[in-house]
Design goal:
Recruits TFIIH to the initiation complex and stimulates the RNA polymerase II C-terminal domain kinase and DNA-dependent ATPase activities of TFIIH. Both TFIIH and TFIIE are required for promoter clearance by RNA polymerase. The chain is mostly helical. The protein is built from ten helices and six strands, in the order αααβααββαβααββαα. The strands form two sheets. A three-stranded antiparallel beta sheet has the order 1-3-2. A three-stranded antiparallel beta sheet has the order 4-6-5.
Amino acid sequence: MSLNDQLKNFKKSQNASTEISVKRAGQATAPTNDLKRTFGSISNNTKASFDGAKRKKKSTVYSQPANTGTGQHAMSQLYTVIQFLKDSNHPQSVVSIASRTKVDISKNPALWEKLVNNEKIEYDSVNNMFSYKPTYQIKSKEDLLSLLISKRKEGGMDYKDLKDSYSKLSSAVEELAGEGVILVVRNKDGNPRVLFYNDAQYNTPIDADFKKMWSEISIPDETDLPKALEEAGLKTMEVFEKKITAEVKPKRSKTRHKRIKITNTHLSHIDLSKDYVPNAKK
């Protein structure tokens, strides 16, 4: 074999080995692409995408029964009717209740009795109408503002106590808060917690320099707060816990009954196996 033939064979073997290594590399990188598709990229890992993923998960419900209406149980039907009346701002007739809730209370005497005697339901026997009896009579945001004004000396009002009084309470609160006529203390999730009337006479103007000084004051961390108070010459509030000590009952000594062997030595001369026969009188 000539030198040229050997050179050609060498090039063929090199090309074949290169093709094999490329195929193996392609097979090895395939799982990497799968991993990228599975986990996604960091740029998509935002709160919006996380909330969207939560909503997507919540939209799929497994192992749940189909919606079969209001149910056949009396308490379930009673709850459905009361909830309908609660969401309605006007009294409702028996026909209206039946058409909206699929519960015909006229054909169920027990349910009718429970509904009429419910403390949160008002029944108009003349017009045969039912209505929900809220804790406070609120029909608009103006009614809510008037209520907060009347209660301003008692402090704020709990949002939970007002929820059953007005079906559009949330939107009314946000509108009044946007207008600046009420003050809202909110939970961590942003939902209203306590409502206050914003009395304008207490809105004292504050100097801009004082606001700047106030905002520049750094609040120590919770762990460093006691030390910072001590350095400022202040004391933390001491909480004394009352220890409840259980009454120690005195232990009663156990009385032990000793076994005593009794021997009737003074009756040894009498045969006790025989019946007693008294001596005849002489």
